Amino acid sequence: MPNHPFEEHIPGLRRYARALLRDRTRADDLVQDTLERALNKFSLFRRDSDLRAWLFTVMHNVHVNQIRSASNRMVTIEYNDSEMTPARGGDVTALHDLANALERLLPEHREVLVLIGVEQFSYEEAARVLDVPIGTVMSRLSRARERLSILLEGGTAPQLRRVK
Q: Residue 64 is part of a domain; what is its CATH number?
């Protein structure tokens, strides 16, 4: 039985952080920062809402704030193949290909894929976590799946450019 209501959500937060950062140490730091922020701001949590979605929202906001504060310096993101171990009977090559393809996605596409595909968030929950309209979540997910499919088939798709 968890000692704190946050405890049962830590594995999901760790998976999401690793998908965002592709670095175990930085991901663990993000989880730590998220839990610290959540504890400090727990009085703002509405008891009638979903704690899991709230924690992922806190993580997303912490991550965005960290990106903004680091915008003036170059960040190298690495991952260790030994961390990417497949389940029993899994294909190491396929897992490696998937990890490489995920890294090549735009961050906002990777975020929505992990939230919906791995963490099983609904579109509405993902929209709240990412603070975007549900239509944006659906659009990003569609583009992410399309690009991921192309990358896994060995093809190349043109990288979308940002227009402001």
A: 1.20.140.160
Positions of E strands within the chain: none
Q: What is the pLDDT of residues 70-98, one digit of tens each?
A: 654 444 444 454 544 444 445 567 777 77
The DSSP H or E segment spanning 35 is: helix 24-40
Question: Does a structural domain hold residue 2?
Answer: no
Say what the pTM is.
0.62
Amino acid identity, position 117: G
What is the tally of structural domains in the chain? 1
Decide: residue 160, CB within 10 A, 0-12 exposed, 13-18 middle, 19+ buried. Answer: exposed
In a domain, 162, yes or no: no
Consecutive H or E run containing 31: helix 24-40
In a domain, 106, yes or no: yes
In a domain, 43, yes or no: yes
Distance CA 12, CA 4 (A): 15
Q: List pLDDT tens digits, range 4-34.
A: 788 999 999 999 999 888 889 999 999 999 9
Q: Which H or E run contains 127?
A: helix 123-130
The sign of the CA dihedral 155, 89, 16, 93 is negative
